Every structure is written in C-alpha cells, then in structure tokens.
Amino acid sequence: xxxxxxxxxxxxxxxxxxxxxxxxxxxxxxxxxxxxxxxxxxxxxxxxxxxxxxxxxxxxxxxxxxxxxxxxxxxxxxxxxxxxxxxxxxxxxxxxxxxxxxxxxxxxxxxxxxxxxxxxxxxxxxxxxxxxxxxxxxxxxxxxxxxxxxxxxxxxxxxxxxxxxxxxxxxxxxxxxxxxxxxxxxxxxxxxxxxxxxxxxxxxxxxxxxxxxxxxxxxxxxxxxxxxxxxxxxxxxxxxxxx
Length: 243
Description:
About 45% of the residues are buried. The strands form three sheets. The protein has a nine-stranded mixed sheet with strand order 4-1-5-6-13-12-11-8-9, sandwiched between helices. The chain has a two-stranded antiparallel ribbon with strand order 2-3. The model has no long low-confidence stretch (mean pLDDT about 95). With about 240 residues, the protein is of the alpha/beta class. Helix 1 (about 30-40) crosses helix 7 (about 225-240), helix 2 crosses helix 3 and helix 3 (about 90-105) packs across helix 4 (about 115-125). The two termini are about 15 Å apart. Strand 5 (about 65-70), helix 3 and strand 6 form a beta-alpha-beta unit. It has helices at about 30-40, 55-60, 90-105, 115-125, 160-165, 220, 225-240, and strands spanning about 5-10, 10-15, 25, 40-45, 65-70, 110-115, 130, 150-155, 170-175, 180, 190-195, 200-205, 210-215. It is about 30% helix and about 25% strand.
C-alpha cells in the first residue's frame, strides 16, 4: 500500500554548521521524521526557495499533508513590525516558502501540523502578530538556538478542543525552546492551550472541517518516549491518510 506523503519545508544551514562541509546545506532534524515514521507515513523535504502562492499550490498537488517545523524567527516585517534586537535566524527564503505553503494548504483544506516556529508561521499567515521576545517569568520556555536549551513545563489544553481530543489529555508536560509567542491571533484561529504564565501554546482553526493545528512546544522531542506527544503525530497522519 502506498503511504501518504507529507511535505516538510527544510531550513537553510550556514556554511560550517555541518562538520566537514565547506558549503551551506538544508536540513530537517531527524526527530520530526522519526515521529512521522512511527505514525505510518513518509516525508519529503521541500527546499527553502522563495515561492508565490500559485507555485506553492502547485507543489502541494504532490502531497497529502504539511508539517511546519521549528527554527529561527520570522522577519517581523511579515507581520508589519520593526525588528527588535533579540530577533535571530531570519531567512527571507524560508519565510516566503512557509507562508505561501501555509496559505495554500489552508485554501485546499490540507491537514497541517505546525510546530514551534511553524505555530508562529500559521498565525502570521492568517494575519496575526507575534510577541518578539517574551518576558521571562515563572515558566521556563527554554533557550532557542542553543544545544541543550530545551526545558520541560506543563501546558493546559481546553477540554473539548481538537487538540485535547488528539492528545487524550487536558494537561501535559511538554518540551519547549522558544523566545517568541503568538500575540494577536490570526483570522479564524482560536487559542486552545496555554502555559501557566498565559503564553499561548496551542491554536487551531475555528472551521472544524479543516484539520490545522499549531503547538508552540516541540512534541517531536519527547514523542519517542511519551505516548501523549506521539498521539499528536498519529492523529495528524490519520487525517493525512484520509485526505
């Protein structure tokens, strides 16, 4: 039986980041691919090239689902704000591709799972904004871009939400590594999960006919040992197979 195919936009890696490589590269961390594989699907990396929405829509003809992964910050210009000093890792190529793919996927009701940066891309693609540097509080959200910078903290998930149904829980321990967060929600999105400090940790489309979910945490970090986190990938792939 042919397995469904998920598009995973890769991100640029600077020259020297990969030991022994004198040139730059593109990459997708293996933890995402492993979680998809356990759920019973295949993935294909999409090169981080600047795309228009027509090209993005044509590309998605070849896929059954879209996974948006973590990484550097979106350029604040994409949501109409000047850049603050803490913004890092901006890639115009990546922003262009992922925003176009997200809008195209939603237009065709393609199942979409958006993780960390992807969660933020989803919000911005629908007209939302981001808090560019959250103020440190009682909840440790980790240190992005630093090896070993992930932290574990609890999230509360709204009972009855699509996300709670998938996780099989309204409270979960999650792996987190980010310094930005959703501020103004994008059109047709609702918040469905929060950290104890009020940071929005989960969003989904209000249209229940569309399977589009964003989580601010990194479920792929712990999905290999935590069934609650793996259920998110399992539910996504089940929808991808139906699509």
